[in-house]
Design a protein that fits this description.
heterodimer, A: about 230 residues, OB fold (Dihydrolipoamide Acetyltransferase, E2P), Ribosomal Protein S8, Chain: A, domain 1, 3 domains, 4-stranded mixed beta sheet, 15 strands, about 20% helix, B: alpha+beta, Ribosomal Protein S5, domain 2, 4 helices, globular
Chain lengths: ~230, ~250
């Protein structure tokens, strides 16, 4: 029997003793906190978090995200970061020597980038940068989308879950904090990796998922195309 | 309200036309995530009402002059299908549906944490497929479930319920006949945790005592409806839990 964590709906009071309530709850009375989301309660010694089952992505500074180019201006790209608001990428924040008016040579409409949120203001206007190690234009590959609140589960503790999927299927995977995932490799292996990710997505609220994932990938071993290792 | 009739809507034993007692609800069934393309959706069957709700957003509000720099705007659109009532309804918005869209938007806005999404817009589409009295509160109840299922932060759920006066008695959750031939109708939207009123309209006449009796009846009923909402939301995840156990 797999155990689920406690499920709450908006307005439910959160039972607590000394822990601090961190995310997903608001103060609804003296020393009382209520849930904002339909989701699960995650507890540790110090903090309580409400993790929604799904929901919009809120950009935060230094989040690494996957974005899609929507529009090109004379010196900026408009990027869809899978959030309620679009983001902007200025030509000076790219590793290329661009000149105004001719930036579509580097990124065209529909291209995907792996970028970082450089800054965000109270109006939720944000700017993306490509100037950091590992940030780049994503060429080839396949993009899938999952709800942003489930990204930590896909990554796992210290990247354990995603690394396990990467190793077992022999695909290259880049997970954006905003819920977009880029996969590259042999099509058949990509399909297995996608199935594995969907499985994590569907069972994110259960306990002991890593072990089940291991068993699942083991069972798929025969189907994976040879040159994985 | 409206036309007088010699139908006896409630008898001496306080039994209504459909066999319910004065404080009984019609059967309610809610399902969530019925539409794949929507961010959140729900389907409610409340007596003879069948209503589909889809939620999209939050997304940037357009046209841009509608944006509010401090908060998100909630745009609910209540629409009745042409085939939802006995005689064909002329499709498209009319005075009634524009009014209902407005009051439902405001009721939802009271529960949603709109201040977290400046410049954004949350779209709620309420499509009435079959109408049988009390569609606005059934739509509101389902809309709140759909918004929660979309993962939009809310202070509380919103629960709707009606009460009314039929045959000089106060009854809960009017049916179609009671709505058409009764003396008064009082739809209310409540935040069940804090008992705050977010929607209240009245058609017909009630004395102060009758009004108080009606509101207390609604307040009690909303607790039961809130429980149905909770079960609708959590059901999916509990089934999954069982399947894995087997």
């Amino acid at each position: 029997m797999t155990e689920t964590k406690q499920i709450v709906i908006p307005g439910d009071e959160i039972e607590r003793t000394n822990e601090k309530v961190r995310n997903g709850a608001y103060k609804c009375g003296q020393d009382k906190y209520c849930s904002e989301y339909f989701g699960i309660v995650q507890r540790n010694d110090q903090f309580i978090d409400i993790v929604p089952f799904t929901g919009p992505y809120f950009p935060r500074k230094d989040d690494k995200i996957i974005g899609k180019i929507l529009e090109i201006g004379p010196s900026m790209w408009t990027v869809d970061i899978n959030s309620p608001y679009h983001s902007l990428l200025h030509m000076n924040d790219t590793p290329w020597r661009t000149s105004a008016g001719d930036i579509k040579r580097y990124l065209a409409i529909g291209d995907y980038i792996y970028g970082k949120i450089m800054s965000i203001n109270e109006l939720r206007e944000s700017w993306v940068t490509l100037k950091d190690a590992g940030l780049r234009k994503l060429e080839g590959g396949h993009i899938i989308s999952i709800p942003a609140p489930k990204v930590p589960r896909i990554i796992g503790k210290g990247g354990s879950m995603v690394n396990m999927i990467k190793d077992a299927t022999g695909t290259r995977i880049v997970v954006g904090q905003n819920g977009l995932i880029w996969l590259d490799g042999i099509p058949k292996n990509i399909m297995i990796a996608i199935d594995a990710i969907k499985m994590v997505e569907n069972e994110a609220h259960t306990v002991g998922l890593t072990d089940r994932m291991e068993a699942y990938l083991e069972s798929k071993k025969g189907e994976i195309d040879g040159n994985s290792k | 309200m409206g036309t007088a009739s010699d139908i006896k809507l409630i008898d001496e034993n306080n039994i209504r036309l459909d066999g319910r007692g004065p404080d009984e609800l019609r059967p309610i069934k809610i399902e969530t995530n019925v539409l794949n393309r929507a961010d959140g959706s729900s389907f409610i069957e409340w007596g003879g009402n069948k209503i589909m709700v889809a939620v999209y957003g939050p997304r940037e509000a357009y046209p841009k002059h509608n944006q509010d720099i401090n908060k998100a705007i909630v745009k609910a659109r209540y629409n009745m299908a042409a085939f939802s009532v006995d005689e064909r309804k002329r499709p498209g918005p009319d005075r009634r549906s524009v009014e209902i869209s407005k009051v439902v938007s405001e009721a939802l806005e009271a529960a949603i944490m709109v201040e977290l999404f400046p410049r954004a817009q949350i779209d709620v589409f309420i499509e009435v497929l079959q109408a049988d009295a009390g569609t606005r509160i059934a739509g509101l109840t389902a809309a709140s479930v759909a918004v929660a299922a979309a993962g939009i932060p809310m202070r509380d759920m919103v629960v709707g319920c009606t009460a009314g006066k039929v045959g000089n008695k106060i009854v809960l959750d009017l049916s179609k006949e009671e709505d058409n031939f009764g003396q008064a109708d009082l739809p209310m939207g409540i935040l069940p945790k804090s008992d705050r009123v977010v929607l209240m309209q009245m058609d017909g006449d009630l004395s102060v005592e009758e009004f108080e009796q009606a509101t207390s009846m609604i307040m009690k009923a909303t607790k039961r409806i809130a429980q149905i909402q909770r079960e609708a939301l959590t059901k999916k995840y509990e089934i999954q839990q069982k399947e894995q156990g087997e």
